Task: structure prediction
Amino acid sequence: MQQHKFIFIYGFALFAMFFGSGNLVFPIQVGQTTGDNWLFGYLGLFITGIILPFLGLMVVKLYKGSYMAFFGEAGGVMQYALPLFTLSLLGSFGIVPRCITVAHGSLYDLFPNFSLFAFSMLFSALTFFLSLRDGRMLRIIGKWLSPVKLSALLILIFIAFLNAPESTTNVGADIALTNGFLTGYQTMDLFAAFFFSALIFTQIEKSLPESASPKEVIKAAIKPSVVGASLIALVYFGFVYLGSHYAYLISDVSPALYLPTLAKQTMGSTGTWFIAFVMPLSCLTTAVALNNIYARYIYSIMGIESNKFPFILLGTTSVSFVISLLDFRGIAAFLSPALEISYPGIIVLTIMSIATKKYKGLKMGMFYAISLAMVIKMIL
Result:
């Protein structure tokens, strides 16, 4: 595979896998809540929604594509509990069902009688079949689905930008920055980065000559990460701007309907059809990737025969279907507290793993101290 083609296919694949349900909602929410200081809101979101996930991508590459080696830095039982906890939130108990609810919301104006139950069943079945093979999945996502999704999102942002009114909400810069930073937790992209990076790293390693050195593999894996992060940053910028300038329009609607409402306002009936294509596509690419990774992790720790993987995948997909019936707000109700407790500790573990691979005891101590502090804060 030619180098530039290689970089862009895997870079687009990373963009598509990251850019799912939360990424279609929370950047707009940041703009809505930060008003005229939306740039500070974007900066906060950029830190937790772009910089930290990018560091997560780098960390796993430094551990040669093994997220288990990274989580092993936590030591003890946590080196097994952390991957299971984070993958459960990313997979069947969090992001995947959230993808289903957001995709369903995008069809509300066109099919108001299409129940969440029926849609979730259809979406889950499609997710299951696309998740069966990760190599084929990455090629489809990176080569076909991602460029279409990116182009559609940029078209929508451009049209909405041309018609955007002035932002009339006054919010302090410090509040806007903090709001953007904390909202970035909800995307859960730092968690996803560890597993997406491992998935991409494995495929990149397979596509390189056997004679390639570890340093050459890491170098080859970094370039797609830069492409993917840059594309996400670009779309986030547009979404935060639109959320700020159209805040009046989305103040009383469900988060899952933010983007459909904006599209309908700026593009009319065309926007309704447009968003009914873009949002399910965005959610599907993320759901497929996360469902595959979660099922493969459970399959690996159970140590069962390879031909049993479809049954594990069917199980994780079924749980996602059930959780999706709680709807967006119901899923957020248990995700938010879990993230407030776990995210700070994972951030510290990530940064220190890049700063130094020595002093394992110090990393473990800081991780446990910060995690315990967050638990105490939540209790009090």
